[in-house]
Design brief:
CATH architecture: Beta Barrel
Structural class: mainly beta
Radius of gyration: 12 Å
Shape: globular
Distance between the termini: 19 Å
CATH superfamily: Trypsin-like serine proteases
Helix content: 10-25%
Number of strands: 6
Length: 101
Amino acid sequence: MVASRDQLHTGDACIYCNVGDGVQKYDIRIEKIRKNTEEKNKSFVIRVTDENLLEKTGGIVQGMSGAPILQDGKLVGAVTHVFVNDPTKGYGVFIENMLEQ
């Protein structure tokens, strides 16, 4: 199931990625939604909250771009960028933007 940008909300979510031990689910939090931004690849701000992922990588690392983001059992987007000064935070792109391409 795919969620529209209007269904996305701040709060708990997860990403799926492979950091050396196969694809695993990791907890994140959607902290800010930027519905009207000109930067379509920076639609919302995420923070890694999963202790296992933080221990393994320190946060979002190279190779995680494109990792799917799910919230409430629906695909809401994908990881696009990391905050240079805080690798626990990054940006996601709305799945709607991806489907429009």
